[in-house]
Amino acid sequence: MPPKEQGASLIPKKPQSRLWLWVALYFGLLWWIAVRLDITFENLLTSYPDLIEYLSRYGHPDFSDLHKYLGLMGQTIALALWGTFLAFIAALILAPFAARNLSPSKWCYRTSREILNFMRAMPDLVLTILFVAALGLGPLPGVLALGVHTAGFLGKFFSESMERVEPGIYEGLASTGAGFMQVVAFGGWPSVLREVAGQTLYIFDRNVRMASVLGLVGAGGIGMALHVSLQLFEYRQASALILVILATLIALDYASGWLRRKIA
Fold this sequence. Notes:
By secondary structure, the chain is an all-alpha fold. The protein has a domain at 83-263: Orthogonal Bundle (MetI-like fold), CATH 1.10.3720. The protein has helices spanning 3-9, 19-36, 42-46, 48-56, 66-98, 106-121, 124-135, 139-163, 167-175, 180-191, 193-214, 222-231, 235-263. The protein starts with a helix and ends with a helix.
């Protein structure tokens, strides 16, 4: 056999792409879900005039009580700020124990991880309903709900950041006789300070958005006022409240992005 033909025979065949198979399976799964959950788009296609008519009711916002709306928005931001603070404190305590390369024992590591998992698994809305039932209406249930839920996320972020720290930093401190708390205080937190600041800002940004929603279930702030307006069919007032929420969230998003860029 000539050398050229012999070399050509050694080239492996190009594997067949199975992308079409995965795409077909994906759309088949979507179809099965639509059938099982009775999801139909017929109503959306046939009732769009009613939808347009309903949305037109929000076309004339009433800003006559703007100072009141801004006060309620300030209360919502304060609620998110307190929720983030509680989450930060809880994460500050749990994160070193949930870091695999820092935790003093396997038992501490697993326990801390499961606590953080539980916090993340409990939705904000469910926690708010529980705290409202226990403590009554007002901002406190919302603060506690945000604090518990987002502590799970912050704790996970912080612990994973600590796991990425160069092992030599921890080993160097431990070799001088430093205990667990000293290694964490002088090796762990200083090494991840920028990441911690950026992650906390992200959670605060998220909490402001969620705090507006939690008001719908009795956690106070501008969300509760929006809920009352919708129940009383005061569409002009509801439209103004929605615009205040939207403008505030956009401003906070730009401010948070600017701060994260400064920290990075």
